[in-house]
Specification:
The protein is an alpha/beta fold. The protein contains 15 helices and eleven strands. The strands form two sheets. It has a six-stranded mixed beta sheet with strand order 6-7-8-9-11-10, sandwiched between helices. It has a five-stranded parallel beta sheet with strand order 2-1-3-4-5, sandwiched between helices. Helix 2 packs parallel to helix 3. The chain is elongated and about 130 Å long.
Amino acid sequence: MEVRAQQPNALPAPSRPTIVVAHFDVHGVCAGYLTAKAFNAVEAYANYPQTSPETVVQTLQNLYAASPQLLRIVLVDIPIDLKNPNAFIRGLEDLAAVHEVVLIDHHESSLKFFNQFSRVKAIFLGPSALTLNNYLLSQIPVPTDADRTIAIIGAIGDRDAEVIRQGAFSAELHSIADGLDVMVRQQNGALQTLRALLTDPAGTLARARSEGDKIPTARLGQRIGPVAVATGQLPPAWGPKALERLAFSTGAWYAAGWTVDERTKQPVARAIIRWDIAAKMPSLPTPGAVARQLWPTRNVIGHPAAPSVAAISEAEAQEMVVAWARAIAESATRSAAPQVTTLVSETKVGELLVDLLQRLAAIQETQSKMYEEYLELKRRQVELLERAGARARAAD
């Protein structure tokens, strides 16, 4: 199904003070910042778990249901709670009986419920996170360079392919987005980061860049086709990001490694596909899809682009990583990506190079023989012409 973003006109200037409530991840915090600037909010709020889909309605009721002042409450980047959509909708509708409530979202999962709102003004701007951010940016009277940067960084935080398609991606912005992710994951980090952006956007982005530079890179053990396989245990608490950095630093499309889950203390195998590569070649298989084919009875946890699979021991986790990498490489080779004709493992490069040089030498030798034969033919031709000339002169 093709989903087109609504392109609403600018929301009318509120007659009530505006409160912005945003999701607690990087995109939510950046979108919350842009919304607060666009609508001149008196307060902006984002925090875990208070502004999750499961709890945001209760949070709003606790904070504002009994407020004597009439407010305009704008929710941004918070999808409808799919576990209990009816309660989510009823809760916002009840709140909208008192306050003006606006829901701005880009998640396709929310769209099918929008027609159930009557009091709430629901605006779909997606499915790209960048589409939502650019709309918010357009509502800021005089956007700054920091505003534009934050719009892109928020979309990078969501690993939005539109950033790649529009040529807005850069390694520096990627590092800042990763640093913001570090900041928002700290205790009360989303709220503190949102407020810091509103107070000092340039300084907050500089701090995020510093935090991003601290993220470790997994160490390369071997290459299996387009997959970089990490050696040793992944840096604690940095599994997916350390693998992503390994993939970027080695030019690999994928990276795989193992670690011990901090919560369960269980060894797990992890794999990621670089999100920019997935955006450029969407037919490439995701690690999650390959894992489900490889281990149909195991629980594959997390996003298909960066999942994990539990192992019974560290030794098994290491074996799983290598098997996973090989399966990903084989599946990627069979994929229909037009840019790919064949994938060559690093261990075969030397053999192929020798074979190529031998073929080139054989071609050169053949060309040399053909040139010698050509010269011999020319020599004979000249010789025949000279003989013919001699006979003609003798006849005269």
